[in-house]
Design a protein that fits this description.
- There is one protein chain.
- The chain is of the alpha+beta class.
- 34% of the residues lie in helices and 19% in strands.
- The strands form 2 sheets. Strands 1, 2, 3, 7, 8, 9, 10 and 11 form an 8-stranded antiparallel β-sheet that branches. Strands 4-6-5 form a 3-stranded antiparallel β-sheet.
- Strand 8 and strand 9 form a beta hairpin.
C-alpha cells in the first residue's frame, strides 16, 4: 500500500476544461479542442496543469495497467508478451488473438467463457480483411479480450466464480477497485460499465498520472514493475503494430504509455515524471499531439517526439494545416 489514508473521491462536476489544441488550416484557427493536461515531476507533484485535473472522469482503457497490476497482485502468473496483452487495447491482429487463446488455454478455458462484447478488430486494415473473409464480430477480436482472458485466469487461480466475473461485487472486481484506489491515492468517485462490459472506475486526471508514476517507479520484482516491464518490452502487444502508443513507447526510452477511448492518454517515465491527457470532445486526432507536447513539458527531449505531431489537415489531398497543441503547452526554455 502506498498510503494508509486515501484522499476523498474527486468531485463529480462539469470539468473546467481549457483549450489544449487548435486546428490550423491555411494559417487560420478552424477549430479548438478543449481538454485538460496534468504533468507531474519526478517527486509526484504537479509541475504543470491545464484545464481541470481534479474533476472526476473516466480513464476508459487507460486504466488497464492498473487492472493488470491488481491481477498480478492476486496471483496472475503471466509474463512478457501475455502480461502486456492483459493490459491491452489490442488491434485484433493474429498475434493478439493467438495470445488471448494462450491465456485461455493456461486457464483451461475457451472463448465461450469470455463475457466481453463481441466486436470486429479495432485496426481498420485488419477489420477490412476480417470482413472480406466473411468473419463476423467475436469476443476474441474485441480489443479487450486479453484483459478479459486474464481476468478469467485470475479467477480460476483464486477459486472465484467465472460466470459473474464482471459484476462489481465480484471478488476480482473488488480487488481491482482496491488497487485503483491504492495507486491513484484517492477514493473512486463512481463505478459504471466500460464498453467491453467490465466495471469502470472514475478517478481524477491527477490520480491517473500518479498511478502511472507509481507503476513505473516501483521496485524490481513487484507486480507494478512486472506490468511496466511487460508493456515497455512488448508495446505492440499492448496496442498494435501500427498504433501511435506503441511507437511512442519505442521512441522514448523507459516510457510506459496507455491510451483510452474518448481522448485519454497517460504516460510515465522510470524516474516518476508522468503526464495524463483528456480531450473533452473525445477526439483522437488531438490526443497524441497534446500528449507529446505534455511530455516535452515534462522534460522529454522534443527531438524524440517529432513523429507525434498528429496527422496533417488535408485540402485537395495535400497538407494545408495541422492539429497544433495550444501555446500554453510549449516547453519551457532549457537553462
Amino acid at each position: 500500500m502506498y498510503s494508509s489514508s486515501l484522499a476523498d473521491a474527486p468531485q463529480i462536476r462539469e470539468p473546467l476544461h481549457a483549450p489544449v489544441a487548435h486546428l490550423i488550416r491555411g494559417g487560420v484557427i478552424e477549430g479548438i479542442h478543449y481538454g485538460s493536461v496534468a504533468v507531474l515531476g519526478s517527486d509526484g507533484t504537479p509541475v504543470f496543469q491545464l484545464g481541470d485535473i481534479e474533476a472526476a472522469f473516466y480513464p476508459r482503457s487507460a486504466i488497464k495497467p492498473l487492472q493488470a497490476v491488481a491481477m498480478v497482485r492476486a496471483g496472475l502468473p503471466l509474463e512478457g508478451d501475455l502480461l502486456s496483452l492483459a493490459a491491452a487495447s489490442h488491434s485484433g491482429e493474429e498475434v493478439h488473438l493467438e495470445g488471448t487463446r494462450r491465456i485461455l488455454d493456461l486457464a483451461g478455458l475457451t472463448e465461450n467463457d469470455l463475457r466481453n462484447v463481441p466486436d470486429l478488430p479495432f485496426d481498420p486494415v485488419v477489420r477490412d480483411a476480417w470482413i472480406r473473409a466473411d468473419r463476423g464480430p467475436s469476443r476474441l477480436a474485441q480489443n479487450c479480450s486479453g484483459k478479459h482472458a486474464a481476468m478469467l485466469y485470475t479467477c480460476k487461480l483464486n477459486g472465484w466464480s467465472l460466470e459473474d466475473y464482471l459484476d462489481p461485487g465480484h471478488p476480482l472486481q473488488k480487488a481491482i477497485a482496491e488497487i485503483v484506489e491504492d495507486l491513484t491515492g484517492q477514493r473512486i468517485a463512481r463505478t459504471t460499465v466500460d464498453g467491453c462490459g467490465a466495471p469502470l472506475f472514475s478517478v481524477s486526471l491527477h490520480g491517473l498520472a500518479r498511478a502511472a508514476a507509481r507503476i513505473t517507479t516501483a521496485a524490481p520484482g513487484t507486480p507494478e514493475a512486472h506490468v511496466a516491464d511487460a508493456m515497455r518490452t512488448h508495446p505492440e502487444m499492448a496496442s498494435g503494430s501500427g498504433r501511435d502508443v506503441a511507437a511512442l513507447m519505442r521512441a522514448v526510452p523507459g516510457l510506459l504509455a496507455k491510451d483510452g477511448f474518448e481522448g485519454v492518454q497517460v504516460a510515465a517515465l522510470s524516474d516518476g515524471r508522468a503526464i495524463a491527457v483528456k480531450i473533452a470532445d473525445g477526439a483522437n486526432r488531438a490526443r497524441i499531439p497534446v500528449a507529446a507536447a505534455a511530455l516535452a513539458r515534462a522534460g522529454v527531449d522534443p527531438s524524440l517526439l517529432t513523429d507525434f505531431r498528429g496527422e496533417p489537415l488535408l485540402g485537395g489531398g495535400a497538407p494545408v494545416g495541422e492539429v497544433r497543441p495550444a501555446r500554453a503547452l510549449d516547453p519551457l526554455p532549457r537553462s
